[in-house]
Sequence to fold (323 residues):
Amino acid sequence: MGSLDGKVALITGAGRGIGREEALFFAAEGARVVVNDPGVEPDGSGGDRGVAAAVAEEIVRAGGRAVADTGSVARWEDARQMVETAVEAFGDLHIVVNNAAVERNRALPKLAESDFDEVVGVKLKGTFAVSHWAARHWRERRAAGDRVDRAIVNTTSGSGLLNPLPAQTGYAAANAGVAAMTVVHALELRGWGVRVNAVSPSMVRTRLTRDVPGMPPAPADGAHDPLHPRAIAPVAAYLASPDCPFTGQVFSVRGTTVTRNQGWTAAERVTGDDAPWTVESLARALGALPRHDPFEALLTTLAAALGPAARDTLHRDIDALLT
Ligand SMILES: NC(=O)c1ccc[n+]([C@@H]2O[C@H](COP(=O)([O-])OP(=O)(O)OC[C@H]3O[C@@H](n4cnc5c(N)ncnc54)[C@H](O)[C@@H]3O)[C@@H](O)[C@H]2O)c1
Fold:
């Protein structure tokens, strides 16, 4: 008996990397899966319709049930069609895993409008679009008396939450937006029995992290690889499973460590007397607070993850990005 027996799951970006492993894992746990992926390059260009089909075929060969969908989550009509495909193929939709993403890492002066639009279009608008059409379907089912447990699992990134990285304007902003959307949708859909959570993968070995400095090499054949993309799938499946009590949460996953995140929290405060603040009085009050330099915070994180050499290269890397 699988944890997702009888469920229908739509997984976006499921042709490769983390999404592919989620599709295989969800199917092994008993879900019928819509494998969505237009098979694009890491920057969103090109397309290969065979990528989604190959994963769906792999699931079917292993005795599971799956169909392929090659639409783009960034296109409104494609997102609607994905939900319809699930309903047509399997009679309903219970789980949405918003996983699709592209990256165009460029420093601010070099980042074109089209780069920003592509990255935010896939990750942020795509998450909204697919969740929107799923919610419309669930509203209809609810009105028809359906009380089945349903779930959305979004995918965000430390780049938008704990460690925004240089050259990731669109990617970091979109991922921070997905985390915010996770809470908004959890609040809105609670009354319909829909839970909404997010996974935040960290240092997973996919084509997106191939060139990340300090990424350890894959272990020899057959050895357990804690950074393999399949590390994320059980967490996504748990969040999607009917017994999961969580909603509105973001869980980071690095190897075998799963961490519940907490969003922006209020830190130090100053309160004025009855007179309005002036620039001078604010400068005195706020200027006395401790300083938190995001550059230092990033250095500390990189040094912890990648070793002390990261400290020496960060200044140089950022300068190189900007020239
Ligand atoms: N790899 C990591 O360490 C890491 C870290 C943090 C977050 N993430 C997140 O995990 C998710 C998966 O990333 P990955 O590393 O497996 O990358 P990946 O490039 O291997 O897989 C992403 C898949 O999304 C698909 N895709 C792109 N645009 C699409 C669109 N418009 N519609 C539908 N599908 C589309 C691609 O074709 C690709 O198969 C992303 O949301 C990414 O932001 C990954």
Observations:
- The chain has two domains: 8-260, 270-323.
- The chain is about 40% helix and 10% strand.
- The radius of gyration is 21 Å.
- Residues 12-13, 15-19, 36-40, 42, 44, 72-74, 99-102, 122, 126, 155, 157, 201-204, 206-209, 229 surround nicotinamide-adenine-dinucleotide (CB under 6 Å).
